[in-house]
């Protein structure tokens, strides 16, 4: 009987260890159009899911049209589910900082308005500390030649965007916007972060 109990305890401990190893975490970034953001982060090893959506505003369950007015206070963001055993929050931040211009207030390329602001919504005190440390270092070293204006805020209610926004680049890669705006970002990602990409 003691052997059976020991075996059961061993199996339970192993299952618990496996469950902890498979634990996922969330990261939320706004860096302009969420079509671009999604196309970048869904290609990274360790990223298990991505959802385009809206965060940081006052209106509950906003629509794309409402967010586009710039009056709701929401940013277009990507909520990323990732396995920290495969990719760290540090590595996600590195991709974030190198995949958009964090020095332009409420603008990315031709897209302008508060919904396109550069923002990190942190989910834990550790994420906040890492984001603030990275931003301070970028400003201290004048990495961009201009001040980084990325907002770092506590996570707020996240609203999933309409279904036609999800997996946008993969479904619409031949559209002009995808070819002219998103494809160059993917090519830059493949050049800089080749070792971090899914096969």
TrEMBL record:
Domain of life: Bacteria
Catalytic center residues: 33
Record InterPro entries: Met_Sox_Rdtase_MsrA_dom, Met_Sox_Rdtase_MsrA_sf
Pfam families, per database record: PMSR
Ranges for domain Peptide methionine sulphoxide reductase MsrA: 26-178
First and last residue of the signal peptide: 1-19
Gene Ontology molecular function, alphabetical: peptide-methionine (S)-S-oxide reductase activity
Keyword Electron transport: no
Known EC number: 1.8.4.11
Catalytic activity: [thioredoxin]-disulfide + L-methionine + H2O = L-methionine (S)-S-oxide + [thioredoxin]-dithiol; L-methionyl-[protein] + [thioredoxin]-disulfide + H2O = L-methionyl-(S)-S-oxide-[protein] + [thioredoxin]-dithiol
Keyword set, alphabetical order: Oxidoreductase, Signal
SUPFAM superfamilies reported for this sequence: Peptide methionine sulfoxide reductase
Protein purpose: Has an important function as a repair enzyme for proteins that have been inactivated by oxidation. Catalyzes the reversible oxidation-reduction of methionine sulfoxide in proteins to methionine.
Family, per entry: Belongs to the MsrA Met sulfoxide reductase family.
Name recorded for this polypeptide: Peptide methionine sulfoxide reductase MsrA
Gene name as annotated: msrA
